[in-house]
Design brief:
Elements lengths: L1 E6 L10 H4 L11 H4 L7 H14 L4 H8 L8 H10 L4 E10 H10 L8 E5 L1 E3 L5 E3 L16 H14 L4 E8 L5 H6 L5 E4 L4 H11 L7 E2 L5 H13 L1
Parallel strand pairs: 1-2, 1-6, 2-3, 6-7, 7-8
Antiparallel strand pairs: 4-5
Helix pairs in contact: 5-10
GO molecular function: metal ion binding; phosphatase activity
Keywords: Hydrolase, Magnesium, Metal-binding
Pfam family, one: Put_Phosphatase
Amino acid sequence: MKLLLVFDFDHTIIDGNSDTWIVKCAPEKKLPNGLRNSYQPGHWTDYMGRVFVYLGDNGVKEDEMKKTMTTIPFTVGMVDLLGFIGENKELFDCIIVSDSNTVFIDWILKAADFHKVFDEVFTNPAAFSSTGYLTVQNFHAHHCAECPKNLCKRKVLKEFLEKQLEQGVSYTRIVYIGDGGNDLCPVMFLKKGDIAMPRKGYTLEKKISQLAQELCPVECSVLVWSSAIDIMSYLKVLIKK
């Protein structure tokens, strides 16, 4: 019986947003107003598709993108935490569920040699076209009214658990580590005994405490973290139990 660790990526594993970081590759490191203002709530992936076309049109190549993306810092303590998980893989299964994309996450994890820590990465599929443009697609279709149209993290988590159960794998508990508004939907799916770990001062923490104030708190335990060392300390306590 293992613990399942579920990580968000942007502002959780890395201390920034991979999709906005790529703008450093744009001419003058900014996007034209028309493009910036074209974002519609819930349609982030479509918006990023237009950003990648703009970068391609301006001659930004794969190498330059990769060099830029691998300069994003990890959040404080995250290198230690991922090292600890990597050394104790017999105790943890570990997945990423993220609204970033496969290319960015792959680059960043491989550059830091952390790709082996994670069993699976669920994120928007991306690839370079024959003309050298980065393209991105929605991860899946879903019917959840709470989530952006390209990704419902609850659906991903539920389907992953069902698939694992079919293979005879169940978990003593789930630890969900995230920061954003789109992490609330999977946190609401967690049961008593599971743990949600929202990043201090970020949207997920605010939304969870708002629910508690409205007297409909989440079912799982909630532990706020500022540094990934907080997460590591807690995991060390859990595995001693």
